[in-house]
Amino acid sequence: MHYGHGKYRIWALQEKLGKDIVLRVGGGERPHVGSIILCRPGKESKVLSLVGHMDHVIGRPIAEKLCRKKKATVVCVCGVHVDKASKDEIDRLVENGRGLLKMI
In the 3-class helix/strand/coil scheme, how is 25-92 assigned residue by residue? Predict the structure, then answer.
């Protein structure tokens, strides 16, 4: 599934791993591994991010909602990058992440 267009498009792919889910969230010009989010039903999610990366701002809400909805452990690998993004471009990427969140 995806939301947005061009370099502001945010996408998600999920794969079952037994009863659990591995979720990949990416977008922008260069998807990458920037943050990892681990969600377990009824527990606080855990975030591990590379220094200077804020990818969890988009990935965490998506992973948490999928965890609640499916009542499954979710591991999300998230990376969204636009070169030299302005504040407006970052806001647009985050907003598109929220649009994707509504689709779950």
Answer: EEEECCCCCCEEEEECCCCCCEEEECCCCCCHHHHHHHHHHHHHHHCCCEEEEEEEECCCCCHHHHHH
d(CA 24, CA 80): 11
pLDDT mean across residues, the chain: 97
User: Residue 9 sits in a domain of what CATH number?
Assistant: 3.30.230.100
103 by DSSP, 3-state: which?
helix
How far is 80 from 82, CA to CA, in rounded Å? Answer: 7
Number of domains in the chain: 1
pLDDT (average), residues 6-23: 97
Range of the domain at 52: 2-103
pTM: 0.95
Contact between 84 and 58 under an 8 Å Cβ cutoff? The reply is no
